[in-house]
Design brief:
Number of strands: 4
Radius of gyration: 23 Å
Strand content: 15-25%
Number of helices: 4
Mean pLDDT: 92
Distance between the termini: 65 Å
CATH topology of the largest domain: Alpha-Beta Plaits
CATH architecture of the largest domain: 2-Layer Sandwich
Order of helices and strands: HHHEEHEE
Structural class: alpha+beta
Number of domains: 2
Strand order of the largest sheet: 3-2-1-4
Helix content: 55-70%
């Protein structure tokens, strides 16, 4: 009973501190806005919130959440590839608001790297699909002699 009460008090203190910090940060931004020295991007966001520009606010939220999840998805993808010790010969990405297209070239008949790429995508998709984000992979072999599609950005070339 005492432990529950102490936990409740700690949670309340954390909540109060969070709100105090949030209000302090808003007040600083308010002063910077009034002095016309707030960074341009923040100023646009506050002006949209103040004016009730819901289109801007929702578009801003969509873009920032997409950037957040896509970055984390790619980070998880690379971490998983490294853990599986799977390095394709070439790797390229095409990014959109909710998905990452992966283009990977592997050695001929390199089943181990191919399996690792497939399992990496599956694991990342499992982790991020609940947020509406996913990876779709294309895996080719050297003998296919295919170029990376022009709209992809190459991020890895394996050194010989």
């Amino acid at each position: 009973m005492l432990a529950e009460k102490n936990n409740h008090i700690e949670n309340q203190q954390d909540t109060n501190q969070w709100f105090d910090d949030m209000i302090s940060n808003l007040r600083v931004d308010q002063l910077l806005l009034q002095a016309d020295v707030l960074e341009k991007h923040k100023k646009e966001v506050y002006e949209a919130m103040i004016s009730g520009d819901h289109d801007f606010m929702h578009n801003y939220a969509r873009k920032t959440s997409s950037a957040f999840f896509i970055k984390n998805l790619i980070d998880s993808y690379f971490i998983e590839l490294v853990e599986r010790k799977a390095i394709p010969n070439r790797l390229a990405f095409e990014l959109s608001n909710s998905k990452v297209l992966v283009w990977a070239e592997i050695d001929n008949d390199d089943e181990e790297t191919e399996d690792a790429l497939i399992l990496t995508a599956a694991k990342v998709n499992y982790e991020f699909s609940k947020y509406g984000f996913h990876i779709s992979s294309t895996i080719v072999e050297e003998d296919d002699k295919l170029n990376i599609p022009k709209h992809y950005k190459e991020v890895l070339i394996k050194e010989a």
